[in-house]
Each structure stands twice: as C-alpha cells, then as structure tokens.
UniProtKB/TrEMBL annotation:
Keyword field: Glycosyltransferase, Transferase
Gene from which the chain derives: punA_1
Family annotation (CDD domains): PNP-EcPNPII_like (cd09009)
GO annotation (BP), single: nucleoside metabolic process
Source organism per UniProt: Rubripirellula obstinata
InterPro entries, per the entry: Nucleoside_phosphorylase_d, Nucleoside_phosphorylase_sf, Purine_phosphorylase
Pfam families: PNP_UDP_1
Domain Nucleoside phosphorylase: 23-278
Annotated NCBIfam families: PNPH-PUNA-XAPA (TIGR01697), PRK08202.1 (NF006054)
Name assigned to this protein: Purine nucleoside phosphorylase
Presence of keyword Transferase: yes
GO cellular component, as recorded: cytoplasm
Domain of life: Bacteria
C-alpha cells in the first residue's frame, strides 16, 4: 500500500475508533449530496483534515467524508468529489477510492450528473452504467508505481491490468434496475463518456458523441472507477441526467441547472442506492459474486 494511502487510512481508522469499518464507498455527484444526510450515526470528517485529500472547489460539493450506516450497511460517502477540470490529476481524483478500499470497502457506488446524449433521455432520468468511453486521458502514477510495487510485475504487464474491461458489476447493476422498477420508475443501462471539462459540449460534439454510442456525458467518475477496478472492488455507476444534450435543440447547459436537477432526482438516486445496499452488496447473495459487465 502506498505510504500516502496508509497514512490517510491510519488517520481515519483512528477517528473511527470502534465503529464498524465501511464495506461500501459512495461518491456523490453534483447536486446529489442529499443522500449524505440520510446516513445514520454520521461521523463527518472534512477533507482538509485527511492526509492526501485535495479540496473540492466545484459548486455543490461539500468536501466531507461521511461515515455511518445506510440500510444497516456500514458506508463511507464522499460528499464532494474531485474533478480533473479543477486541476487535479487522475491519481488525486481517485485517491479517496484507494483510501476507502484500504479501510475496508469492497464495493463502490459512484454517482454523477451528466448530459443526456441519447435522444431517449430526459432531465431527471437515471442511467445505470454498463461501460464508459474515457476521453479524459492522462496517466495514473497508480499504474506505474503502486500496482507494480504491489504485484512486483513489469509495467507492461501491469498497465493492461488496470482496466480489466469489465468494470461495472452486472449483479449490482441488475439490482439497481430492479430497485427502480419496484419504486415505479425506469432506469436503463447506458454508456458514460468522460470528458476533461469544464466546458459543456457544442451541438456538433453532442452529435458526434451520440454517433459514437455515448448515452450520457460527464466530467468525472472514470478515474475513480478505474482505480476501484484495479483494486478488485465491485463498481456500480449511476448517472443522473441533469440536462438534455440535444444537438438540434440549442440550450446551453449550466452548473446551476445541473445542481437543481440533481436535487430533484435525489430521491430516485437514494431509492436505487438503498435497494442495492439492502439486496445486493453485502448479503453475498450468490449472483452478486460473479464479476461480469451488464
Ligand atoms: O460529475 P459530477 O461531479 O456529478 O458533476 C458534473 O456536473 C458538473 C457540470 O455541471 C461537472 O462537474 C460534471 O462532472
Ligand atoms: N461534459 C458534460 N458534463 C456534464 N455534466 C452535466 N451535464 C453535462 C454535459 O452536458 N456535458
């Protein structure tokens, strides 16, 4: 384990005391921080007090790590994430995932607000990620340094090991979809295209993304899920459509609109997360051990 990760993990475990260690990490996207308030027996730790954590500077991102229980499951939630467009590297954006894993989390639920590229999508829809297109680029120190140390392999072997191709856990995705259906709304599978940001897309770019098979487009999530995958964590990705990215209907997205849409769709996101925690993540139900993508 990297020295920084163990330093941060030790610091958090000390503050946790005899509380149960978290089994599930949750990353809350723009406008989706409301779920953090549902965590019971909450212990809130500001990012600036955690060694190695950078700062959340994007609007609507609190900057707190919240420990507690949700659906009787010990969780740790990031209320506020780190984006590449804030100037952070892939490793800095994903550092909290390494720390969550180091203190016990074996599953990760990542949420984000995203533009709806597929014409079937409307504001407020939830898309359960089955795959992603990584347009962020950039390398991972995690790749070269840590995995090699950890596995003692040559870098050429390790680099391929980061993205095993099946990043998004199918059983968790199915339970997420069933939880939505039970609650009376639909949540379909889709592909997330990650851009560096912070600009939203032009009409031509939305059109191109649609042609390339993206269903939603955002500016986060991929660094976190790549590192979670490399650590063997099971990953559930949930996008909330905050704006319709319709190439033929010119309306320029803005962050305020994204935050408002997130708050409005927060109940749907909470329903899905609760359903997954209740049924799929920890009960080690047989179908939830296989790691195949939807
Ligand atoms: O991905 P999250 O953190 O939900 O935020 C999304 O919404 C913001 C744009 O309004 C960008 O930060 C984009 O990534
Ligand atoms: N790149 C990108 N990120 C978003 N996050 C929320 N909406 C959007 C969008 O339209 N484009």
């Amino acid at each position: 384990m990297n020295a920084n990760v163990s330093t941060a993990a030790d610091s958090l475990l000390q503050q946790l005391g005899n509380r149960p260690r978290p089994k599930v990490g949750i990353i809350l996207g723009s406008g989706l921080g409301g779920l953090a308030d549902q965590i019971s027996d909450a212990l809130k730790i500001d990012y600036e007090s955690i060694p190695g954590f950078v700062r959340s500077t994007a609007g609507g991102h609190r900057g707190q790590l919240i420990f507690g229980e949700l659906q009787s499951v010990p969780v740790v939630a990031m209320a506020g994430r780190f984006h590449r467009y804030e100037g952070w590297t892939n490793d800095q954006a994903a550092f909290p995932v390494e720390v969550m894993h180091a203190i016990g989390a074996d599953s990760l639920i990542v949420s984000n607000a995203a533009g709806g590229v597929s014409p079937k999508l409307a504001v407020g829809d939830i898309v359960i990620l089955k795959d992603h297109l990584n347009w962020m680029g950039g390398t991972f120190q995690f790749n070269q340094a840590r995995l090699i140390q950890k596995q003692g392999k040559e870098s050429s072997e390790v680099i391929g090991g980061i993205n095993r191709g099946q990043i998004y856990d199918q059983p968790m995705a199915k339970i997420a979809q069933e939880s939505a259906m039970k609650a009376g709304f639909s949540a379909n599978f889709g592909t997330y295209l990650a851009t560096l940001g912070p600009t939203y897309e032009t009409r031509a770019e939305y059109r191109m993304m649609r042609k390339l098979g993206a269903d939603v487009v955002g500016m986060s999530t991929v660094p976190e899920v790549l590192v979670a995958n490399a650590l063997g964590m099971r990953v559930l990705g949930l996008s909330m459509v905050s704006n319709v990215a319709d190439p033929d209907r010119p309306n320029v997205a803005n962050h305020e609109e994204v935050l408002l849409a997130g708050q409005a769709a927060g109940a749907k996101m909470e329903t899905i997360v609760r359903g997954v925690l209740r049924r799929g993540v920890l009960r080690n139900c047989p179908e939830s051990t296989s790691r195949t993508s939807p």
